[in-house]
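Hey Z.,

So I finally got round to the protoporphyrin IX containing FE thing we talked about over coffee. Here's the setup:
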Amino acid sequence: MTVSVPLWPAVLGRFGWQDLPFVRAWENPTISEIIGAFAGALVVVGAIVVAALLTRYGKWRYLWTEWLTSLDHKKIGIMYIVVAFVMLSRALVEAVLMRMQQAVAIENPGFLSPDHFGQLFSTHGSIMIFFMAMPFLTGMINYVLPLQIGARDMAFPWANSIALWLTIGAAGLMMASLVVGEFSTGGWSGYPPYTERAFSPGVGVDYWIWAVTLGSIGSTMAGINIACTVYKLRASGMRFMRMQMFAWTSLCTSILMIFAMPPLTVATLLLALDRYLGFHFFTNDLGGNMMNYANMFWLFGHPEVYILILPAFGVYSEVVSTFSTKDLYGYTSLVIATMAIAVLSFTVWVHHFFTMGQSANVNAAFGIATMTIGVPTGVKIYDWIWTMFRGEVRFAVPMLYAIAFMMTFVLGGFTGIILAMPPLDYLVHNTLFLVAHFHNMLIPGLLYGMLAGYHYWFPKAFGFRLDERWGRIAFTCWVVGFYLAFFPLYVLGASGMARRTQAIFEPSFRPWLYVAGVGAFVLLAALTSLGIQLWVSIRDRAKTRVEAGDPWDGRGLEWSVSAPPPEYNFAVLPLIDGRNPFYDHKHDEDQPDPYASPAAYEDIVVPRGSATSVVIGLAAAVAAFGLIWEIWGLTIVALQVIVAAVVLRSFGRDQHRTIPAAEVAREHEAWLARVRATPAIPRQLETAAVNRGLAEIVA
Ligand code: HEA
Ligand code: HEM
Ligand SMILES: [Cu+2]
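And the result:
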């Protein structure tokens, strides 16, 4: 931990030369410090290269007007996902560093200092949860939900953009901590008293507090927006029980966000009061109590893991049904199971601290509540299996992820049940067994789900498919890498190896740690393959165009529009008459043709782009930066900028743009003509297997 001599407190606050990783590496050239300096340099050089490329190709204006300031839910969704991939890359590299350290640091100190190792698991965990998983699923919901329920946008497009920019600003703080200062060593859960000033005087914990606070406010806003969109903007006839499963899981996740995020915001803000103003909420003196923090954090933290998993469950439901060429089995039970998980998830938080002193009866009650969640989860697994049963299963990449998920997630679920038994939890709490459990839920559960969704909806968003061969290579690496990297941890944890350990004193752990290290590299290869896949797909896009926008013979409404969809999504808002209106109309001759011209077109009003949301999000990050470094003037100015932007927006006119009916008609008719000119099978052409399946359906 560095606490350097302030250089110029009046202007630069706490900043001193030792806060630069380059200076630290110069003064103390250990491998650990050099890696730190290299990471800092990478951020700076990366930013410069991106800026230079944008300038070289004259793309700044395009980026600003078409993307950054856009209020279109589809573009906001894509930007969220870009953030998620960037942050995934960083956090994955950090994971590899940790695995390397643990593989080499057996009976020796290894190459990472304890402090650096602490920063790595803290940034890795915080980034993966708040700046990889959350943006990924929020982005996916943003993109898909309005299309699925027949809406033209989210309920509050401007707030949507502010939520995005708060997330970007907060992710920016995470990146800034690599260049100036350091990060917290308190883990993703940031427990006091360790994170109080007395034990962590540097800027690290403050970076964590403000990044998480901004992220949590962004997620609360996103939650409200998603829920209102579902409640208010469904197309006519789209009853609740006609919504696609992904829309259902989005709704349940958004409700969890609305209720679970504020406890986190409050917990981090109270911790900030402790640190900045000497309050004693979480200290042991003057009436404070650390357990207040543990309860508030996990009151957020447990529902959070279901916030993460429910949208993935939604994706699997879509994918399993589409690629089994069958209706979803047990739709109603899936809806009820989703709601049950959402409600139950608020009743189990104490299982995160069984060992922290409450009575055995309290532990038993929370343990039983925890195990109950296995029931609705099991219902879902069975429903997916029955959906596949006797289906025409097509093994396209999204389906591969879904199958790998089912087989692997169940194992992690059972280790969760083990942890839910307090007497067993006493043995493995805070060991690598726990680390194996939660990665077993987060990677095959959440991450595979997001990747399945990415492959599934990519053609919708960009008009061409992702390369199948590289998709399979990446998939294989994600699966093989996962088993290699995390199954050894069950053994290590059961043998007593604690989590967050920088150096290991037990030689018999060595073989398992080697295997886990190899697994981490395979996972890195998986991410690299996804990068190559994207490049290959863009290069070969002419061959994989999806003219009709329906490459998988899809079921939901999102497949009924062009790819990419027009800004207003639907030329004419659809009328819904069943659970799979698009699919049924497509395949039943007696039903109306989904590619028929509508009777009439109308003018459509869409929101104009707005710079104010960008300004608000970034100014919030600047204000936070000022608080971290105690540059109070900067914070005050940034807060004033936020107020000014809000005022400006409130008085702004011309916030909407009308697209004349004639223009809508021209675009839509041109698309319909192109679709009708293409025979049904090539419209929906994926692998040979897909083709065979489709040929039979059409015949
Ligand atoms: C997406 C993320 C995710 C998911 C879905 C889950 C799901 C579950 N988790 Fe996990 N968990 C985490 C992420 C997740 N967890 C994280 C991140 C932590 C640690 C945080 C930290 O400390 O840093 C954690 C920690 C954690 C603990 C604390 C342990 C400790 O600190 O010592 C416990 C204890 O009860 C637990 C239990 C469970 C249970 C019972 C489920 C259940 O929901 C699982 C249900 C699924 C199944 C059971 C399988 C399928 C079901 C069937 C096939 C039906 C038949 C089975 C039965 C009826 C039993 N988890
Ligand atoms: C993809 C490959 C991944 C690898 C190799 C990996 C590896 C690791 C390692 C080595 C640790 C430290 C374990 C310890 O305490 O000893 C860790 C912690 C953690 N990881 Fe991962 N991880 C990966 C992906 C993910 C994903 C996708 C998520 C979440 C979505 C995630 C969330 C976490 C969390 C929350 C922690 C706990 C941090 C803490 O202790 O505070 N990880 N991971
Ligand atoms: Cu939990």
